[in-house]
Design a protein that fits this description.
Helix content is 37%, strand content 23%. The chain is of the alpha/beta class and 271 residues long. α3 (111-122) crosses α4 (128-141), α4 (128-141) packs across α5 and α6 (188-205) runs parallel beside α7. The chain binds adenosine-5'-triphosphate and magnesium ion. Magnesium ion (MG) binds at residues 56-57, 101, 180.
């Protein structure tokens, strides 16, 4: 739908969609990542888990270029994201969408206007009416009713705000979607509906999804693989069954503790 004439990248690239090697991030004395490696394959939903403060959001921010690491190499779509010109960076950024932790919608803009923000930023010459049509379509794609488009974020429920955030993340027809704690704060039914939406978008739009979550039900329901952040790096990546076979204490406690066992038994996890 959007103009791709100017995009200069290898359409035949088949390697990892995200590739992080030797990443180091530190804030003063605090080392958040040290020698972190992670590959994300095309078309997968990869869940990223780890205790609070282990650096999941910082990892995402590093991959999308909002946090400059002290060391390491980060490639997205096979292209290094560090050291690019502004024009090259824009071409790569057009190809991903992001739902930040907490949503981060502009409170003074309606849902439709929020969705139009990235369109206006990256395609300033697009006809205004067409921009509105694209925004309306993205609102519907996110599972919101068209009535939500003229509403302000304060007029929406938490679940609707998440969907509005997804609509904005989808604004530029991304190939790669970053979701940071998308089901946090939703009730179990709302969270399951959001999981279903994520899976449907992955399948119908062929998306690759980088999904940070604490939600065991989400991991179980829609993630193809799970990456575990601990000890300043990714200590394991694999299917849940593969992770369950590992002997790491955090992994065992997380997946095999009472909440983990209940989620995997397909029951509701108690609040
Ligand atoms: N801009 C920053 N300046 C200083 N410290 C930061 C900054 N951003 C993150 N940190 C620190 O880095 C660590 C990792 O933060 P991050 O937000 O990535 O954690 P997280 O794994 O996403 O946690 P949560 O599950 O609670 O969202 C935290 O100790 C945080 O305080
Ligand atoms: Mg976080």
């Amino acid at each position: 739908m959007l103009d791709s004439q100017t995009i200069a990248y290898d359409p035949d690239y088949e390697g990892p969609i995200v590739s992080v090697h030797g990443l180091r991030n530190a804030f003063g004395e605090q080392v958040v990542h040290d020698n972190l490696d992670l590959d994300v394959q095309r078309g997968e939903i990869i869940g990223v888990v780890g205790g609070s403060g282990t650096g999941k959001s910082v990892l995402m921010r590093s991959i999308i270029g909002l946090q400059t690491p002290q060391e390491g190499e980060i490639k997205v779509f096979g292209e290094p994201i560090l050291g690019k010109s502004d024009a090259e960076t824009i071409e790569i950024r057009k190809r991903w969408g992001v739902l930040f932790q907490g949503g981060a919608l502009f409170s003074t803009l309606t849902v439709a206007e929020n969705v139009m923000v990235p369109i206006r930023e990256f395609y300033p010459d697009m006809d205004r009416d067409f921009r509105r049509e694209v925004a309306k379509y993205k609102v519907c794609l996110s599972g919101l009713s068209p009535d939500a488009a003229p509403k302000y974020p304060s007029e929406l429920s938490g679940g609707m705000r998440k969907r509005a955030g997804i609509a904005r993340a989808l604004a530029l027809d991304p190939e790669l979607l970053f979701l940071d704690e998308p089901t946090a704060g939703l009730d179990p039914i709302g969270a399951a509906a959001f999981d279903a939406l994520t899976k449907e978008l992955q399948q119908t739009l062929g998306l690759t999804v980088f999904l940070i979550t604490h939600d065991l039900d989400t991991l179980h329901a829609i993630c193809d693989r799970v990456a575990v952040l601990a000890d300043q790096r990714v200590i394991a990546v694999g299917t849940i069954d593969e992770l369950l076979a590992l002997d790491h204490p955090w992994i065992q406690e997380y997946f095999n503790g009472p909440r983990g066992r209940m989620a995997f038994a397909g029951k509701k996890v108690p609040a």
